[in-house]
């Protein structure tokens, strides 16, 4: 018996948790009071009854006024409603979408058949009320500020715009708030300048039947214009309760000869290049391609050339696997129109650049490999092959990683080689095999790292057997090095443009690709001693304290203290090039003392004191 009650309790909890909140509640005044309609739930079955609560607007004193029972459904509605609580999410969404379309097409009858509407006839005319819809113990919808006995029209459509395409006028507007406002349909009127508007669509357009993407075609196309003139279009919304709102309007000038857009009759792609054959555009127009890669959000203008009706364009190297292509026609002063976009696969069989090892180091049983990055924009990673006698292993190193480390106990037979792999599966030629056993024991000797005007100068003694010399730079002693240069083996110096303190090492490579051990690591360190300058002058001007000093040889901290407190406040971090500071964080009648301090040092400049007038 205990198990049975535990099971029943769990089922009740699950059932309560599965009741989903209704998305929308629409309300409006009627001659008899207020009518309410709410949307079917998502993710749960349609409840068998709803409870309606009402409060005078803003009071929060809720009173139960009615219970709406779900009527017996016919077989068609029963099958749709059953899918609202189906475990398959797609079936849930399909059922709810179908019910919403039925509701927006004929709200009074469908809402009554589903038990999701209620008319409150016990209200005071022109009074404001708040309403809540409950399913059991769960609040599923709420609406505030409903005026009784007075219908509120829907808002005018936002973002109404018009354009001429061929001999038709296309209209489109923003549909984002259609369901929120309970807009069931739209009606469209047209008026020639100076004349009365006429409805150009026999029946209102169902709002939920309109698509959101208007880049290819508008929501409404008017192809019935015959006289070249100026026209005003009006679009009004109609809500679920049949109220038509105030229309939005847009002006457009219709011209009898519209420019034709180019059409892509055939398009092929290969090796980051697309070839198109065009039809149906005026020969006097110029053509320009626009593409958007599926890895980017913005369109780009690629390089292209034309030959009659054939246009060839080059795609930039990227990791994209598809591209949307459109063509625009126009002249030197304007773009007339664009073709319908076409989506093509990105075909690329061009192998990437071959990588180059920059380091092969053994420290006891630890082996570390590094290589230089390749300039390929569609780089996916690197394929590393490792052989040890008859055994071969393959490792894939994702870009932008440029290192590989492992513990190897048998150094004699281990060899490595590397390939570059791009995003489309193309592989470069492999590097020569590099063997741990053939590491050169001689190291290059890095003699000095010196600061000069052009940057940092490195000098070393040449090795007679070196074919190449790699220069590795460390941001600090714990970071992974970056190979900044590969020089001829006869080079004896190099200037790094950076002037910041860095650490450097050399690695030599012989003519068959064997690597030396790295040289000793040397770094440039500033030798000057920070000296905090004295503050030359301090003045109170325009409600602020101005301080001036001579240029320092290092970055500084500006400190401030008061006679009333022992606390020292750091006002600012000052670059070495700064020679003045404006302190606005002051109070009248106070006395302040300022000093400059070297960062991380005890040395400070001579302090100055200033009294602020009351």
Structure description:
This protein is mainly beta and 614 residues long. The protein folds into six domains: 2-147, Immunoglobulin-like, CATH 2.60.40; 161-253, Immunoglobulin-like (Sandwich), CATH 2.60.40.10; 263-345, Immunoglobulins (Immunoglobulin-like); 356-435, Immunoglobulin-like, CATH 2.60.40; 445-523, Sandwich (Immunoglobulin-like), CATH 2.60.40.10; 535-611, Sandwich (Immunoglobulin-like), CATH 2.60.40. The protein contains four helices and 44 strands. Strands 10, 11, 12, 14 and 15 form a five-stranded antiparallel sheet that branches. Strands 4-3-6-7 form a four-stranded antiparallel sheet, with no helix packed on it. Helix 3 crosses helix 4. Mean pLDDT is 81; it is low at 1-20.
Question: What is the fold-level CATH name, i.e. the topology of the largest domain?
Answer: Immunoglobulin-like
Strand content: over 45%
Name of the CATH superfamily of the largest domain: Immunoglobulins
Integer-rounded radius of gyration = 39 Å
Give the class-level CATH name of the largest domain. Answer: Mainly Beta
The largest pleated sheet is described as:
5 strands, antiparallel
Level-2 CATH architecture of the largest domain: Sandwich
Q: How far is it from the N-terminal to the C-terminal residue, by CA?
A: 85 Å
What is the tally of beta strands? 44
Low-confidence blocks of residues: 1-20
């Amino acid at each position: 018996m205990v198990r049975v009650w535990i099971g029943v309790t769990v089922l009740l909890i699950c059932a309560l948790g599965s009741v989903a909140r209704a998305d929308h509640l629409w309300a409006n005044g009627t001659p008899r009071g207020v009518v309410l309609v709410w949307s079917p739930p998502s993710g749960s079955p349609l409840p068998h009854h709803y409870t309606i609560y009402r409060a005078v607007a803003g009071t929060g004193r809720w009173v139960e006024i009615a219970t709406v029972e779900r009527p017996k459904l016919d077989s068609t509605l029963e099958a749709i409603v059953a899918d609202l609580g189906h475990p398959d999410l797609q079936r849930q969404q399909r059922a709810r979408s179908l019910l919403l379309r039925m509701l927006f097409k004929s709200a009074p009858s469908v809402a009554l058949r589903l038990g999701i509407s209620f008319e409150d006839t016990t209200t005071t005319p022109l009074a404001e009320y708040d309403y809540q819809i409950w399913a059991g113990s769960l609040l599923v919808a709420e609406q505030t500020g409903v005026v009784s006995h007075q219908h509120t029209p829907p808002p005018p459509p936002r973002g109404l715009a018009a354009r001429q395409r061929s001999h038709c006028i296309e209209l489109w507007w923003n549909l984002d708030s259609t369901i929120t406002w309970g807009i069931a349909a739209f009606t469209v009127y047209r008026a020639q300048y100076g004349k009365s508007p006429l409805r150009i669509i026999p029946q209102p357009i169902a709002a939920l039947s309109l698509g959101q993407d208007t880049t290819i075609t508008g929501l409404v196309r008017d192809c019935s214009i015959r006289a070249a003139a100026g026209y005003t279009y009006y679009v009004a919304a109609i809500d679920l309760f049949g109220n038509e709102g105030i229309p939005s309007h847009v002006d457009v000038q219709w011209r009898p000869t519209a420019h034709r857009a180019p059409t892509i009759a055939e398009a092929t792609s290969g090796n980051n290049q697309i070839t198109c054959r065009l039809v149906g555009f005026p020969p006097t127009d110029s053509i320009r391609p626009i593409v958007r890669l599926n890895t980017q959000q913005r369109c780009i203008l690629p390089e292209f050339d034309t030959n009659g009706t054939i246009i060839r364009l080059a795609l930039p190297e990227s990791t994209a696997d598809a591209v949307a292509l459109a063509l625009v026609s126009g002249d030197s002063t304007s773009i007339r129109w664009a073709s319908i976009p076409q989506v093509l696969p990105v075909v690329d069989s061009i192998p990437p650049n071959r990588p180059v090892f920059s380091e092969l180091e053994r420290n006891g049983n630890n082996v570390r490999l590094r290589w230089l990055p390749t300039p390929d924009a569609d780089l996916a990673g690197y394929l590393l092959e490792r052989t040890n006698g008859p055994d071969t292993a393959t490792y894939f190193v994702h870009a932008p990683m440029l290192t590989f480390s492992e513990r190897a106990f048998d150094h004699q037979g281990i060899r490595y080689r590397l390939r570059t792999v791009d995003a489309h599966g193309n592989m470069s030629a492999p590097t020569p095999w590099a063997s741990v056993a053939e590491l050169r024991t001689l190291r290059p000797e890095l003699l000095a790292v010196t600061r000069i005007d052009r940057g940092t100068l490195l000098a070393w003694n040449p090795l007679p057997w070196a074919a190449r010399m790699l220069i590795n730079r460390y941001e600090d002693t714990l970071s992974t090095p970056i190979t900044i240069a590969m020089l001829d083996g006869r080079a004896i110096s190099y200037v790094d443009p950076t002037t910041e303190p860095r650490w450097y090492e050399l690695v030599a490579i012989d003519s068959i690709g064997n690597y030396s051990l790295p040289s000793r690591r040397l770094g440039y360190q500033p030798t000057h001693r920070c000296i905090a300058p004295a503050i030359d002058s301090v003045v109170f001007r325009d409600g602020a304290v101005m301080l001036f000093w001579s240029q320092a040889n290092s970055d500084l901290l500006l400190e401030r203290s008061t006679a009333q407190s022992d606390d020292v406040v750091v006002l600012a971090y000052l670059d070495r090039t700064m020679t003045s500071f404006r302190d606005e964080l002051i109070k009248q009648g106070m006395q302040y003392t300022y000093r400059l301090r070297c960062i991380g040092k005890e040395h400070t400049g001579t302090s100055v004191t200033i009294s602020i007038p009351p």
